Amino acid sequence: MLGENHSIHHEFPEHHDLIDKLMNEDIHFKKLAYEYNQLDKEIRTIEMNGAPIEDLTFEQMKKRRIQLKDEVYVILRGRGS
Question: What is the spatial distance between Cα 54 and Cα 69, in angstroms, rounded to a whole number?
Answer without folding.
Answer: 23
